[in-house]
Write a structure and sequence with these properties.
This protein starts with 12 loop residues before the first strand and ends with a strand. The strands form two sheets. It has a five-stranded mixed beta sheet, with no helix packed on it. A two-stranded antiparallel ribbon has the order 1-3. The protein is globular. The chain is 0% helix and 36% strand. The protein contains no helices and seven strands. It is mainly β and 96 residues long. Strand 6 and strand 7 form a beta hairpin.
Length: 96
């Protein structure tokens, strides 16, 4: 028997669509805001499908660099995000 009020809250998820890694401390990383605890995997790709970034840490974010640590040019990039059993994909715009 259950007693008392119970609140079930869905995890919050916010995926920005633009960021500006220009060292002004404002939107310098593409950071998915996720407050849940399910497994998390974020991948970033260029327009040719080359993977530039991958992380399973929801507190890290992509800083607009490639796998060699070089800054990538302004433009549109693509993300694939898996949170638990849900998949999200879309575009992000990098502005310097």
């Amino acid at each position: 028997v259950l007693h008392g009020p119970y609140i079930v809250m869905a995890p919050e998820l916010f995926i920005p669509n633009v960021f500006s890694p220009n060292d002004d401390d404002i939107n310098d990383r593409f950071l998915v805001e996720y407050s849940g605890s399910q497994p998390f995997n974020l991948q970033i790709f260029d327009r040719w499908g080359v993977r530039l970034y991958e992380s399973t840490n929801k507190n890290l974010g992509w800083q607009g660099i490639d796998a060699s640590g070089r800054a990538v040019p302004e433009g549109v990039y693509f993300y694939k995000l898996v949170v638990g059993d849900k998949e999200y994909a879309g575009e992000i715009t990098l502005v310097r």
